[in-house]
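User: Batch of two.

Assistant: Item 1 of 2:
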Amino acid sequence: MSGSTTTISTAHDLDQRANAHKRVQQDPSLGVAQQPQTEKKDDRPLFYCKVRSVATVITLLSTLYVEKGITVYVTVMPVSLRFTITKDKNLRARVYLKLPSFTQYVMRNETSKYTFAVNLGILLQCLQVFGVGLPPTMQGTTSGRPWQQYSSNDTPQHASLEMTYAAVGGPLHLKITDEATGAVTECNIRTLDISNEDEGLYDTLNFKSCPVIAKIVLPSAFLRDTLAAADGLAGATTFTLTVRPDTSAAAATATSGSSSTTTPQQPLVSVSAQGTAGRISYDLPTVGRGGVFTTFECTKAATVSYPLALIKACARAMARSENSMLRVNERGTLALHHMVPPIGIEPTANQAAQRKDNGGEDKSNWIEFVVAACEIE
């Protein structure tokens, strides 16, 4: 009988202990440590942006389409969205889409940057989903002058663009909205993740590794006409640039008060093209009366040759560019920058004055080309 009593008492005690354990779990005030809760997952995308006019993006990215199947590396940074392509380790081109072009620009982590790669041809085709004609290079048309073949006037300026990069290795999501009709198109483009440590694999041209010996700023229209003339030479394959230091001021100081006659200075900048039909050469007017340069700096004379096909690829950006800057380093590498204002954004009077004073760095996007020299003297 006692054994039976002992068994019942033990079961009762176990029930009491179980109930007490439940009360401890439900009441935090009892001072018992609680189980750590799982952190809530951050579902925000790594990057999201909205551009008021898809025409701006189409105009800029079409200048990078130098060959079929080319890959563009997209780098999301706190101050701009950068697109980079390379060709045969002799050409690197970059587009910088600056913050004023966006109506929204959000990064999950504003102290970091993200890089991924997509097929540029597919990206351009998706952006032009509303039936806009492709740039001539994408249509297989390579003849003629590329800077005169494509204009952003053919793009739908009333269409907005939203881009979302949700996670590393995930697709690039595009949403294009025709604000006039309300039509919406969405598509996903497969991406390839490129870590920050691997960026040097596609950045094969390091212009800053050598001192700059020449810097020239001039209107893009004048440079466009000069390249068009060089391209007009039959069979032309090489473009040659010659720069010389400006010694006129030093010569005038040395001969002041003297009756001696100074020898006329050679042109500061000369360009030429060599082809099967012969050679054509132009001397660019210098600073001053009749000059076209707003800035000219040169510390060392040099004559550098480049493949004309690569120079023509650089010239494609001049259809919308206002000003251009040329720089040459000691290795002969050419850096060519084009300033392109955002489409649909008219600067105020103060902004226009600021653009004139600081070289157009208020709202304008930049297109940068770096070309390796094939010969230097």
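Item 2 of 2:
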Amino acid sequence: MRSITDLIDRFARRGDPLADRARAMIERRADVRARQLHTTKGYILRDLNWAALTPVLRALLTPEARCLDCGCPFVDATGITIDHLEPPRYFQDWAREHARNIAFVCRSCNAMKQRKTLAIWLEERAPTIGNTWEQLPLDLVPELSPVERAELSRARADLTGPKTGRFGPPGGWVGSSRNDVG
């Protein structure tokens, strides 16, 4: 008996030349990761849900696809790398090997991030991209309702220190000798 994901994937592939290529790439990368973690490819694809990454990779194989971190276009399929948003803490850290902790980025972004957590990497990168989350205008997120917009404004005001202008509660973190996180 075929699973529902197989049927959905087969239906999605009709007329799509990139479908089989994306699936093959995910299976190859899952095989490599399975060997590194001393487990089976089936466990990575099925239980850690890497098979669900196929449509995402399929979209990134199109000519208009861009890196989710820097916005640069991908030169070819070999330039698309798998990045863990939060790096594994220890060998066989299955929670951090799950598909919801995986993103596809370009080689340079993956090399710059290395084993840093997403929060630390974004904080380091904020000066280079010119914005931190506190500085982004709220009108860039049109799906926010006026109430959500007001709540986000209040949250930003509460989390932005009055002197440093950096992320953190006014007066610094409890038990910390510094007034900023970074």
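Helices lie at 4-13, 17-37, 41-47, 54-60, 94-97, 107-113, 118-129, 146-159.
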